[in-house]
Amino acid sequence: MDIKRMVSFDDQNFHIKVSKEHKNPYISQISANGYTLKITNTLKSSLEGNFDSMHTSMIHLDKKGMHTPVPVKNLEGETWTLERVPLLNEDENVPGPKLCGVRLLTYITGVPVSTQEYTKDLLFQWGLLLAKFHYAVEDLDRLGFENKSVFWNLEHIPELRKYMEGLEGQRLKLVQSVLDRYPSEIEKNMDRLPKGIIHGDFNENNILVQLKTTQKDETVYSVDGVLDLEDMHCGTYVWDLGLMLAYTLLDCKTMDPLEGAGHALAGYLSLRSLCDLELPLLKMCIECRLCQSLILCAHSYRTDPSNEYLMSSAKAGWSRLEQICSTSNEDLLSKWKEIRQSYNNKK
């Protein structure tokens, strides 16, 4: 057996490969690519129906042709079980058993977007994949998602004020300026924004790229793998798009990050459209997600300084937040419109 730990924020994930000999009647053939062993944190594991709805989603997406993991049944014929497991980023002083959901999923091949140089085409495909995802889940049963509370969703942005200890100076002012605009820009429009089932964390580590070498020794890629459905819930589509664009900003070093986000947006809009209310709110959604990532990861890092993954977004996050906050919405939308038109001119 070969076991390798995979990066994660508040769960534990492992890529495992096993021998072909087994006693599981529900596995007809051992996967040569191995499996992903997922140990989910106690909070998510305690949510009623969480794993069942997630696994239903995986099977649904797989049938729709999306490249995503699917659950594997254990010896009892179940796709998950609760076990006592010590977990990262959870308070060891809290009494009671640490019951975590343990699951085995098929392992899908590919490399994370985060490992690749961000080109215009890669960013375009990233945005296009999110649009495909939104279409694929439109007819998915919402049972299990409508009442699911995800702390990282748009509605919880005002609660960030509870976790701002340690922030000072310009960084504190920057975050406060975003939170102060939340009631007038997001809250008052929330009920009018189109909603549906969303991914909730379409970031650079959850999206996979397939690399292939042509006969001319050229490397071509396809952005098509979707991982981590833990945060799927009923929410606003513009939030799902905004948080994805926030992650395109964070690691974009090959061009102006705001331009890079424009190429990802063009990819999304090549398949799905936004209403007149959604497009002007994208900038604010990006700012809110950057604030979430920077504030909550810093808070968790103070609890667990050994987890360097928690601070990965902070490397460029503050400068990206400052850049987009200092850019007017009019200028940003104009820049993005020019990028979209450049794709239309190629048709």
TrEMBL record:
Residue ranges of coiled coil: none
GO MF entry, a single one: hydroxylysine kinase activity
Main subcellular location: cytoplasm
Alphabetically ordered keywords of this record: Cytoplasm, Kinase, Transferase
Subcellular location: Cytoplasm
Reactions it catalyzes: (5R)-5-hydroxy-L-lysine + GTP = (5R)-5-phosphooxy-L-lysine + GDP + H(+)
Enzyme superclass (EC): transferase
Domain (Aminoglycoside phosphotransferase): residue spans on this chain: 37-268
Signal peptide boundaries: none
InterPro entries listed in its UniProt record: Aminoglycoside_PTrfase (IPR002575), Kinase-like_dom_sf (IPR011009), Pseudomonas-type_ThrB (IPR050249)
Any single Gene Ontology cellular-component annotation: cytoplasm
Enzyme Commission number(s) from the entry: 2.7.1.81
Family that this chain belongs to: Belongs to the aminoglycoside phosphotransferase family.
Listed PANTHER family: AMINOGLYCOSIDE PHOSPHOTRANSFERASE DOMAIN-CONTAINING PROTEIN-RELATED, HYDROXYLYSINE KINASE
Function: Catalyzes the GTP-dependent phosphorylation of 5-hydroxy-L-lysine.
Protein known as: Hydroxylysine kinase
Source organism of this protein record: Caerostris extrusa (Bark spider)
